[in-house]
Amino acid sequence: MPFLVEIASIVRSKNAGPLTVSFDLMFPTEAAYLQAAQSAALTVSALALVFDRPAKEINVTLYAAALAIKITMPRAVVSGSPGDRDVYGAQQHLPLLAVQV
What we know:
By secondary structure, the chain is an alpha+beta fold. 20% of the residues lie in helices and 25% in strands.
């Protein structure tokens, strides 16, 4: 099984407002997209384990026309508040790099 980072052309995270972080997974081919989209490793329950969050907080949206997957969840800490170590949410995708699809 390859790692997500090996088949995706883009794996990134960013704020979707001060309370939510989004993850963009983009793929260079339909085959790579389908492998990820059909992987048990990218289900809500699997991602809940990866990010140590309740499954009910995680949304996974498949965009077949764009060969992309978007994942959203509440930020653990409000952006810019005391204790926030990633104001822009740009480093929250790191756990996804170790996911095998």
